[in-house]
Amino acid sequence: MTSKSGSGAAEDGSYEYEEESVQNARGMKLFTCRWLPPKGQIVKAHVFLCHGYAVECSVTMRGTGVRLAQAGYAVYGVDFEGHGRSEGLQGYVPSFDVLVADTDAFFAAVVASTANTDLPRFLLGESMGGAVALLLHRMRPSYWTGAVLVAPMCKIADEMRPHPVVVSVLKLMTNIIPTWKIVPTTDVIDAAYRMQEKRDEIRNNPHCYQGKPRLKTAYELLRVSLNLENNVLPKVTCTTTTNYLLFFFHGRYSLRSQI
């Protein structure tokens, strides 16, 4: 089930913007948005946005959506459960697997509803969204044409890697107080964004979560990061006859992988 909540276009007519709510398999409303080239312009490809932890798509990733739409790409985003304008306890990720399944279902529905389902399909994920993009590719290896991962959450620095005992204790506590905001951490916004302008934008955005990580959320992010590092990244492949392009952007260093 979907419901339109808003639409518009740039004053110069260089792109169109739409918002709507969709319902996931659990009956929750998820906020979605899209930036499209002007009507009548040929669409080059579909680009699907996966936002980072605690933020959302319509404001935080607006610049990316606008620039890509102006360049001829159809861009689609969805606020994950507990993020942005979607339903769910703010900042709470009860299951990363379910979050990925929600995203996969929405992206697949978008492609199925378009006039040309054979257009190239790209994923663009930032931080936690980079992990989502990697797992989406793993679910449908032949479905995606390529991906751009910006500072993806796919490896834990050695100096920050928790002891296995700590991980076990954390898992036990999530069964008792999963939503408690008791995980000690540095300011997430300062850690994730270097530009002060971007930090201020997020802090002034009422749809962004700014509290401490909830216990179950922290465990899910840790679990997924370890799984990606140990089990997924070494096996990322593409089963299509064309090459799959994977771009990593992280700090001063970038990596382009063609597989």
From TrEMBL:
Coiled coil: none
Pfam families in UniProt: Hydrolase_4 (PF12146)
InterPro entries documented for this protein: AB_hydrolase_fold (IPR029058), Hydrolase_4 (IPR022742), MAG_DAG_Lipase (IPR051044)
The Serine aminopeptidase S33 domain, residue ranges: 43-231
Protein name in UniProt: Serine aminopeptidase S33 domain-containing protein
Encoding gene (name): LOC123398540
